[in-house]
Design a protein that fits this description.
single chain; 66 residues; alpha+beta; two-stranded antiparallel ribbon; globular; Alpha-Beta Plaits
């Protein structure tokens, strides 16, 4: 089983903290809400992913270790 990273778009407020903290993994969609970059759903070993999860003001990011 592999790690799985996701952003709950129904909770996200578009603060952009995820994209600022781990820009190689997160981005913002056309509406300004956080999203995981395509192909980066496993976090790709980026050490800043955990910090981005903590930085989200509404806890919209989930990271499940496999």
């Amino acid at each position: 089983m592999s790690d799985r990273l996701s952003v709950d778009s129904s909770v996200c407020i578009g603060s952009g903290q995820c994209a600022l903290t781990a820009p190689t993994v997160f981005d913002q969609d056309d509406d300004g809400y956080g999203m995981v970059r395509p192909g980066r759903e496993d976090g790709a070993g980026d050490p800043l992913v955990r910090e981005a999860v903590r930085a989200c003001p509404v806890q919209a990011i989930s990271f499940q270790e496999g």
